[in-house]
Design goal:
Length: 180
């Protein structure tokens, strides 16, 4: 167990016992970990801060569920990971429903919806050959036949690329969660 794990674990256990000072120190240390994770996954600073606050709230609500025989850092990272995933699902759902603003644009928090996921760091880490099919089918809403025609590939190849791209994104999200 490294020093950071040991220190934060001691603070968390003291917090569970009702020590308010330890709880404040625990939250300050957890905040550093959470901000590091959200800064790698969420492009928009306002959204990043919202997810950070959601993760802190998640830690607070789950404080009594922490099992001291397990890694404290993994517990914090798991809660944060799920808050990031919830955020990504929310953004995807907004795009899927194509919520229209007063100007008739599809937007998310002032940015064009179709460009939003493209700017997320984790999304930019996959190859363009996989990113293009995902953008066309999952973000812009084209059918697989339409997207395959645009990319000048067979429809079966497009479906394979979408599947591989999504698997790669999931793996990268999981890897990032355990690297930190």
């Amino acid at each position: 167990m490294d020093l950071q794990e040991k220190n934060i674990k001691e603070l968390l256990i003291s917090s569970q016992a009702g020590d308010k000072e330890s709880y404040g120190e625990f939250l300050a240390m957890a905040l550093i970990i959470i901000r590091k994770m959200t800064s790698k996954k969420i492009f928009n600073p306002g959204d990043r801060e919202d997810v950070t606050q959601d993760a802190l709230l998640g830690l607070h609500k789950s404080l009594n569920t922490y099992d001291s025989s397990r890694s404290c850092l993994s517990w914090i990272k798991a809660i944060t990971h799920y808050k990031i995933v919830d955020y990504i699902r929310k953004v995807s759902k907004i795009q899927e429903n194509e919520q229209i603003t007063d100007e008739g644009d599809v937007t998310i928090f002032g940015a064009p919806a179709n460009d939003y996921l493209e700017t997320m760091e984790i999304f930019s880490e996959i190859p363009d050959s996989l990113k293009g099919p995902i953008i066309l089918t999952k973000i812009k809403g084209y059918s697989t036949a339409e997207a395959a025609e645009m990319l000048q590939i067979k429809e079966s190849a497009l479906r394979t690329r979408v599947s591989r791209g999504i698997k790669l994104l999931k793996k990268k999200l999981e890897d990032e969660n355990y690297e930190q």
